[in-house]
Amino acid sequence: MRPHTPRTRRSHGRWAAATGAALLTLAMAAPASSHGADRPDRSNGTFSNGTRTDGTHADEIRANDTRSYEVAGPRTAAQRTAVAATGVSVDAVRKDSVVVTANAAQVERIRAMGHRVTALPGAPDRGRAAQPYDFPPADSKYHNYARAMAEIDADIAAYPSLMSKQVIGKSYEGRDIIAVKVTNGSATTDAARPEVLFTHHQHAREHLTVEMALYLLKEFGSQYGKDARVTKMLDSRVIWIVPDVNPDGGEYDIATGTYRGWRKNRQPNAGSNSRGTDTNRNWDYKWGCCGGSSGSTGSETYRGSGPESAPEVKVVADFVRSRVVGGKQQIKAAIDFHTYSELVLWPFGWTHDDTAPGMTQDDRDAFATVGKSMAASNGYTPEQSSDLYITDGSIDDWLWGNQKVFAYTFEMYPDASGAGGGFYPPASVIDREVARNREAVLQLLENADCMYRSIGKEQQYCS
Question: What is the predicted pLDDT for the residue at 463?
Answer without folding.
Answer: 84
